[in-house]
Amino acid sequence: MQHTPWKKSRSYGDNYGGATRHREEDNIHARYHSFDRPSAYDDLPIMRVDNPSRDWFHPLDADQVRYALKALPNHDNDVTHVWLRRGQHPDWGVATGIWGSGVSLITLYAAPRNLIRDHGAQKPQQSCQRIYQRYGAKLRRVGNRWQAVWTLPELRRFYLYEGLYDCAADHSAYVWRDGRCNTQKARDQRMEDWLYRRKVLAHSVYRDLFE
């Protein structure tokens, strides 16, 4: 899909698989616009794709996100909506997840087209540095500013593993359709099982999509 810079084009984005207009029904989603509870006839997940500005892009497109989520077992896939949002995550992350009233929303933020994430004058925290190291991003200092430099394959893995699948795992740990996951111990065990499956599955999905 060809996107034009949003400042030149008044088109905000596109919807896939659901209604093209959304009504505000749940306050929890108000700051993310509004996303209706899907009907039995919607093809999930319903995708919302913003037009990024000329300096930003979506490392995972709508079709790739759908493929990755549909690769999950049915009992692990409760995601109803995914928003590929323009602009960057307010922190160093790439995704957020919220759910309630029949809606489970994952938001994946855009990435800089030059593959350089600027952290400003403050050096990223150790937790951030460890994740960057895990995915091969190079941390450098240019003048008084810290920057993380990515390659496109590394960035896509980061978005798939730590963004999309992490949010899906968080949701799966707390909302389980058959109702048996109703204690903290059960949720912790479910999260541990999910993370193991995610590690195996994510490698396979990445190969299918990009190799």
Task: Explain how this protein is built.
The protein is of the alpha+beta class and 211 residues long. It has one domain. 32% of the residues lie in helices and 22% in strands. It contains four helices and ten strands; from the N terminus they run E-E-E-H-E-E-E-E-E-H-E-E-H-H. The chain has helices spanning 62-70, 126-134, 152-174, 184-210, and strands at residues 13-16, 46-50, 56-57, 81-85, 95-100, 103-109, 111-112, 116-120, 138-142, 145-149. It has a five-stranded mixed sheet with strand order 1-2-4-6-5, covered by helices on one side. Helix 3 runs antiparallel to helix 4 (184-210). Residues 1-32 have low confidence and may be disordered.
Note the topology.
Elements: E1 13-16, E2 46-50, E3 56-57, H1 62-70, E4 81-85, E5 95-100, E6 103-109, E7 111-112, E8 116-120, H2 126-134, E9 138-142, E10 145-149, H3 152-174, H4 184-210
Parallel strand pairs: 2-4, 4-6
Antiparallel strand pairs: 1-2, 3-7, 5-6, 8-10, 9-10
Provide tags for this entry.
about 210 residues; alpha+beta; five-stranded mixed β-sheet; three-stranded antiparallel β-sheet; 4 helices; 10 strands; globular; disordered N terminus
Mean pLDDT: 78
Number of helices: 4
Strand count: 10
Taking Cα atoms only, what radius of gyration do you get, to the nearest Å? 18 Å
| N- to C-terminal distance | 21 Å
Number of structural domains:
1
> Which secondary-structure class do the elements indicate?
alpha+beta
